[in-house]
Amino acid sequence: MPKDILGKLELSEVNSGVFYGEWMPIDGRELISSHSPIDGKEIAKVTIAGREDYEMVIKKAQESFDVWSEIPAPERGQIIREIGDELRQKKEALARLVTLEVGKILTEGRGEVQEMIDIADFAVGLSRQLYGLTIASERKDHVLCERWHPLGPIGVITAFNFPCAVWSWNAFIAAAVGDVVVWKPSTKAPLTAIATTKIVNSVLERHGLPPIFFLVIGKGSTVGNWMAEDKRLPLISFTGSTATGRKVYEKVAKRIGRVILELGGNNAAIVSDKADMRIALKGVAFGALATAGQRCTTTRRLILHERIYDEFLDKLIKVYKNVKIGNPLEPDTLIGPLIDEEAVKKYEGAIERAVAEGGRILYGGKRLEGCYVMPTIIEAHPDMRVVKEETFAPILYVFKYSTIEEALELNNSVPQGLSSAIFTNDLREAEYFLAHSDCGIANVNTSTAGAEIGGAFGGEKDTGVGREAGGDAWKFYARRQTATVNYSRDLPLAQGVKFDIE
Fold this sequence. Notes:
Homotetramer. The protein is α/β, with parallel strands linked by helices.
């Protein structure tokens, strides 16, 4: 299976991890291995970038930007449309590689590639809608308007859990605006990044255009730092932990650059006594279990109304007992492995801390073979420190509430502010929730996980800065220019200022 997948995606046993229009030679370079969390076996090796490699990538990115940014936006959109078509052709092979390399179930692997296709479609339409305002001028015979221009080469640093979709949220929108992209993927998912880079740049090569999607694989402590400190990258979009995000923010702010930070989530789902129990049960289970709890939008806290507390938990535990944990390439599997041994240890450590702080395990709490773990439900109280933190694992903390005000206080009681949900058929409760949730994403009668690309994605508080994907998130990848045109035969000044000369 692995060799078959690698062959379809033009991958070999040892692959170059640096693309600057050509793939950097492999000989004499440091190697890292990609291991599948499914069975711990090595899939293939990848070279990582040195400083000279990085400098070559940035040089070529600047050259490509000069060409790409001059192409009319609708023409750029047509190239992105063809990239989406190319991804459609490679969807199954790329989805299987995602599953093989990061362990998410195959339907989620397919969903990830479909997200790339969807954002490409969105970017095609966007290429004809890069609108600026026309503003009424206070001066006669003047035009006042906004213009939006590409930023330049931008840096995108992604995490393992969405090894290609999150990159595309940034890359295709940026490309529609006129930017080029330098990508540093997670070293836990290098093969997916290489395959994706090959697919998307093949379209540009077919049109005789320079590459606009560059790849530089390396450690965060080297390549990540180089990018954060590099003034030639006016924007850094970083997805990862809050702790690392703070460091990136400091480095970019020091050079007065721009950032988009998609950091930790600690998302709550509120289930009212007025909810549709079937919908709520499915929404909570999916939110807590999808991708083995390794989504930034994973449901990590469940806030249950006291009237339905016991009944709902009984039903949820039955769901947990019946889900299949195992090889994510098998069609009936719902929960695959955690990404690696380090993730398993964090799972175990969080459970130990929760119990030490007074939590009670209602289900799970055990490690299985390899990187597989039991999804876990823990009865908790708001003062527990561990519930204020994000653990990238299928651990669900449960709380009880009596009033909607109390539920929102619990929802907002953590440092993170990414996604939130309420399950209720009461209009007043739903509207109160939407008005008072402090998260960037607020859902009624649907899961905290599974955002659509049409809306801007991102959070508040420790979750980060900025937005990706849909809405008007494209403005983060462009520079705004306020333009004034005087077509009169005089020079009237704003605010009625007089400045007469002979």
